Amino acid sequence: MHYELLLFDLDDTLFDFNETEKHALGNTFNSFGLPNGLEQYRDTYRAISSVIWDDLEQGRITLEELKVERFRRLFQEHELELDAHRFGELYIENLGHESHLIEGVEEMFVSLENYRLAILTNGFTLAQYARIAGSPLRNTFEAIIASEQTGFKKPQPEIFEYTFDTLGITDRSKVLMIGDSLTSDIQGGINAGIDTCWFNPEGKENRTSITPTYEIRSWKEFSFGRKTVKN
Fold first, then answer.
1. Which of 66, 153, 154, 213 has the most CB atoms around it within 10 Å of its CB?
2. CB 119 within 8 A of CB 141
3. Would you call 134 helix, strand, or coil by DSSP?
4. What's the average model confidence in pLDDT over 122-144?
5. Are 14 and 8 in contact (CB under 8 A)?
6. Bigger pLDDT: 57 vs 86
7. What are the CA-CA distances from residue 204 to residues 122, 123, 180, 181 (Å)?
8. Residue 9 a catalytic site member
C-alpha cells in the first residue's frame, strides 16, 4: 500500500465490543444489586443504545448526554429506580477494564511496523485509553484521538482536521481510515477527503450510497485491501 498513516477505529474494528459490553454491563448491574441485570435488560439496552449512538453521529445529542440518557431510558422502560448518572459513570469505568481483541488483530499489526498508526474513536477518552493500555496493543499507536477530547466526532470532518494537525499530515492521499461503520468511519473518511477501508467480517450488504475504497472480511486480507465494486 502507498499509505503512510493508517487511522483505525477501535470498537468492532480492533476490539470486540460485544464481549466488552457484556462484561462491563454485567459488572455494573452487579454493583447495583442486580446480578441478573445483563440477562434481563441487555436486549432493551442495546436497542436504546443503537438509537442514541445514531443520534450522536447526527449531532442530536452530545457524548456527555449519551452517557446518562441511554440508561435513563432503560430504567424508565423497565421501571427501575436506579441513578442513571451513577450507573453511567461506573459503566464507563468498567469498560476501561475490558480489552478483547478481534481475531487476527495482534498478528496484523506485526506486519505494519513501517506505517504510522493512530486510533480515531468516538468512544469515551478514559475508557478507550485504559482498554488499549490493558491490551497487547499498548505500545502500538503514535496517537489515540477520541471525540470527547476534540469536541467533534466521526463523521464530522473537523475531527479528521484535528487529527491531521496533531500528526502533521499535509498529503491526504497517504492516509487511510479503517473501520466497521459505514456511517461513521467510512463516511467520515470520505468527508475528510481520504481513502477508506470497510472492515466487514459478517459480510453485511452495503445498502447505503457510501462507497469505501476497500472492503475486507478479516484481518488476514488487510495487507491486500480488496477493492469494492463501485455502484
1. 154
2. yes
3. coil
4. 95
5. yes
6. 86
7. 22, 23, 10, 11
8. yes
Measured distance CA(219)–CA(107) in Å, rounded: 9
Quick one: average pLDDT of 8-18? 97
Question: Are 29 and 38 in contact, with CB atoms under 8 Å apart?
Answer: yes
Dig out the grid coordinates for 179 from the structure: 473501520
Please determine, for residue 225, whether its predicted confidence score (pLDDT) is greater than 80: no
Whole-angstrom Cα distance, residue 23 to residue 42?
Answer: 11
Find out whether 150 and 158 touch, Cβ atoms under 8 Å: yes
Give the whole-angstrom CA distance, residue 160 versus residue 177: 10
What is the rounded CA–CA span in Å between residue 155 and residue 188?
Answer: 4
39 to each of 17, 200, 216, how far by Cα in Å?
A: 17, 27, 33
Q: What angle do CA 155, 96, 190 make, to 5 degrees?
A: 15
**What pLDDT does 42 receive?**
96
Give the C-alpha distances (Å, rounded to integers) separating 200 from 7, 95, 175.
Answer: 16, 23, 20
pTM given for the model: 0.90
Q: What is the pLDDT of residue 229?
A: 37
